[in-house]
Amino acid sequence: MKSYSSKLLENAVHELCRxxxxxxxxxxxxxxxxxxxDRSVAEALGNSIIRLRNEIVYCKRCHNISDSDLCDICxxxxxxxxxxxxxxxxxxxxxxxxxxxxxxxxxxLGGIISPMDGIGPGDLNVESLVERxxxxxxxxxxxxxxxxxxxxxxxxxxYKKIRDICPHISTIxxxxxxxxxxxYADEVTLGRSIVNRLPYEQTLRK
Amino acid sequence: MKSYSSKLLENAVHELCRxxxxxxxxxxxxxxxxxxxDRSVAEALGNSIIRLRNEIVYCKRCHNISDSDLCDICxxxxxxxxxxxxxxxxxxxxxxxxxxxxxxxxxxLGGIISPMDGIGPGDLNVESLVERxxxxxxxxxxxxxxxxxxxxxxxxxxYKKIRDICPHISTIxxxxxxxxxxxYADEVTLGRSIVNRLPYEQTLRK
Lengths: 206, 206
Description:
The structure is a homodimer. By secondary structure, the first copy, chain A, is of the alpha/beta class.
């Protein structure tokens, strides 16, 4: 047990350590940094964290993280509302938005099918996707999941669910290196993979 | 400019990014982690950060970070009160305490002399060190600064200030690799370097 000579410091280090990828030494460095900085810095950080967790909601339509019932993207009338891009979580939305290549709406699954982690189709926002495709007159669904076995499995599951009700189903081009997470792809590669998307049937033949 | 679809999230990411070593992607990962976790996690973290900065004080005697006027180490009657270990900041105290090899008191300089960074002797707690050596009947001062040019310069400056009023002045053995920061030394090496400390005059001859 490390002795920090201060319960306040010990507390802050303990809490910072619970964040993913932050160990004891990093937590201590962050805490000492906050002590040296102006009081307003620690207050702004602490309050932004508390408010984030207490006030955040999910978009009722696409399940994106939002400040209100409808997220900025769903509420934007200039977006193409007959095309949906299916993503795993909101980090993928940010990545795709940054390419500037996509102007439709999104649908956040909240994960991908992964039997190893005990995540089945029932844990994902698939039912609401099917409903949206039916009720919103969706012309095309673009599947933008990670290029892994789990991503492919999820693609196939969704494909079977909507092939009869959606005229076009595509996946983003495999410009993204196979086995890599979407989050780390560079913007050019990710942008091209959206432009060069392929009909889903075509990807099955390979 | 990245679009996060939520001002709350944008705010939290912005504040997390101001921490040293935390970039945009890491900040976003941390924020999303907090959203997924229980509400109490974000509240405990946020409050511990705010309380840390608002309520922390420095020990009036050794300048260590503390919850009260006198830190736990200075207030501990079982410590040897006639021996002082001079360190740069409180991370070094934690490192030395973890070796279990030292039972005296500390004195935190708050930095080291570094003309390149504009830090001179006047910015450090040197005057109070001289006062302590005189008034507390200090028998030995151990200098435990980093093994760099700046550390050596600071050692020499302090040596000149106290050589006439302190019977024994030593530096920790250079078991710590030269050029390395104290914080990253393993406990055995750091512990041995305290046991094998050398009279300061002896280090000048080399």
